[in-house]
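Run CPBP family glutamic-type intramembrane protease through structure prediction, thanks.
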Amino acid sequence: MNYIQQAFKGNNEWYHWVLTIVLVFIGWQIIGAIPLIMAAAAYSENLTEFAKAAEDNFMSLGINKNLFLFLMLFMFAVGLAFLLIGIKYVHKRAINSIVTSRRKIDWKRFWFGFLSWGTLVVILSFLGILLAPEDYTFNFNAKPFFILVTISVLIIPLQTSLEELLFRGYFMQGIGVLAKNRWIPLIITSVCFGLLHGANPEVEKLGYITMVFYIGTGFFTELLL
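Sure, done. The structure for CPBP family glutamic-type intramembrane protease is below.
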């Protein structure tokens, strides 16, 4: 409950929450989308082709995959910046109040979690290669590979940070202010966060059983706050 109580340290009238959500939407879906729209327009031969691609997927225009990934992730990065602006200047509270109930972020816990999960993923990946090598194909092209690595290391953390801080942080605190308890925001944010991943490719391939992972990890991580 200490984590949810961080919301009471600043401005927490309903209009502060609405204004911050609007700011995030503007940054994420409007300002952040400008570079992607400009790139799509550059790849389009005419307005009709651009409009059709906007309805389906801009990837159909032949945009470089790494460039497309970067532009998509850039939208999240701008959204994250606007979320932090909302916390600091609309709610008038410290930015780390959306991350932890402690005075400072405990980076030891962060690195412990990062290294633990990273080690587990590496081990499971190698086991997958050993047990089913036919499912893997070695395909190395240095230039796009290192560009992808750079994007993954620098930009993907910003995308995941927006998702986590918005749902498991901001929304959880906001619902907690209304509900005055921990369990209602825990359940609502975990379920909503999981359902929003229902359209992910892995869900289509592996089935809705993967939703147990998304929702379950939400419960687990939020219980640690």
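The radius of gyration is 20 Å.
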